[in-house]
Amino acid sequence: MHSDASLFLSQIWNCSRGEANSRVHEFFETPYFKKGIQPIPGAREVLHNLSRFCNLSVVTSRQNVIKDHTIDWLEKHYPGLFQDIHFGNHFALDGQSRPKSEICRSLGAKILIDDNPRYAIECAEAGVRVLLFDYENSYPWSKMESINQHPLVTKVCNWDEVEQQIVSWIIS
């Protein structure tokens, strides 16, 4: 398990790191995880638009144990859109974990879209611009006061804002 991520969720859920890890793995067995997760409104259209002038890759903290499920989900909802899919393997019961900043650096990534402030700061500190995604200000885990102070982190609340921000960076 990635220690920062386990600490983060244990604080949100007010439980031990071990309990947070158990909850994450129990979630993988639920029908909602297996069949019910739908893309966020606007994501498909905006990512398709961005793919015309950006190379898109997925950098996820997801575990290797759900790698096949994740790839199948991405292919179902975003066929042919992503060049690469990279797994950080955080919260893993076994196997190596890899920081998102390291993955982004190895890809030469210029921008990361993420909903986790800790990953946002980590990647911003590595020189990557980050769009901290807090869908309609509804993600309690995306709130962190200090995040607003970092010059490479910009908060966005929907996919239209993602598109507008990326386009503005490209044309400036």
Automatic annotation (TrEMBL):
Biological processes, Gene Ontology terms: deoxyribonucleotide catabolic process
GO MF annotation list: 5'-nucleotidase activity
Domain of life according to the entry: Eukaryota
Organism: Rubroshorea leprosula
Protein name: Uncharacterized protein
InterPro entries, per database record: 5'(3')-deoxyribonucleotidase (IPR010708), 5_3-deoxyribonucleotidase-like (IPR052419), HAD-like_sf (IPR036412), HAD_sf (IPR023214)
